[in-house]
Amino acid sequence: KSRENQLLSRVVNVAEKQRLLCRLITKNTAIILDGKVSRNDSAQVKQELRESLRDFTYSRDFLFDQIHTPIFGTSADGLRVKRVISNARVYSKAIVAISNEVLKGDEELLRLNKAVYRNQLSYNQQNFQPLFEEASLLLDQIYNEKKNAAEEINKGKLISLILGLFCLLSLLLEPLIRN
């Protein structure tokens, strides 16, 4: 249970991180598309965007792998998380593709396709964010339910341990009381 809860906690954190990375990727891609920053700042923004894209892709793949583990089982919430993350994957792939295209594009290509990139990026972000908000809420709910179940199990173990110690103590004290 403890290992399962740790993994679920990590999944919850990664899902929250995905939402933040999506915003950061969108912001940095928009800055590059505007082209109103110095070369030095542009290089810094591009580097930050590359790192964000790498983290975003890694996290997306991690989440997609985790939703197929037994942690999510066949509960209604688990199935909803699987559906939501699977749906969000389409938008996240589009966000990554657009941002990579912007990173690799030359000034002329960016100038010609600026509006298309902006519209597509905005569309995909607007569809991705609500899905991951829902996924985060569901994951939090699943995590809290599993954590509460683990706490109940631990309480039961503690009570059993106390009763066992009481019984052991009574067995040890019985001969002393007889004498």
* Global mean pLDDT: 86
Termini separation comes to 47 Å
The oligomeric state is single chain
Number of strands: 0
Strand content: under 5%
Q: Can you give the helix content as a percent range?
A: over 70%
Query: Major beta sheet, specifics?
Result: none
Poorly predicted regions are none
Give the CA-based shape.
Answer: elongated
> In DSSP terms, counting alpha (H) and pi (I) runs of 4 or more, how many helices?
4
Category from helices, strands and their pairing? mainly alpha
Task: Write the element-wise H/E pattern from the N-terminal end onward.
Answer: HHHH
Radius of gyration: 25 Å
What can you tell me about this protein's structure?
This protein is an all-alpha fold and 179 residues long. Helices cover 91% and strands 0% of the residues. It contains 4 helices and no strands. The longest helix is centred in the C-terminal third of the chain and has 72 residues, at 107-178. The radius of gyration is 25 Å and the shape is elongated. The model has no long low-confidence stretch (mean pLDDT 86).
In short:
The chain has 179 residues and is an all-alpha fold.
SSE layout and pairing:
Elements: H1 2-34, H2 39-66, H3 76-104, H4 107-178
Helix pairs in contact: 1-2, 1-3, 1-4, 2-3, 3-4
Give the key terms.
4 helices, 179 residues, mainly alpha
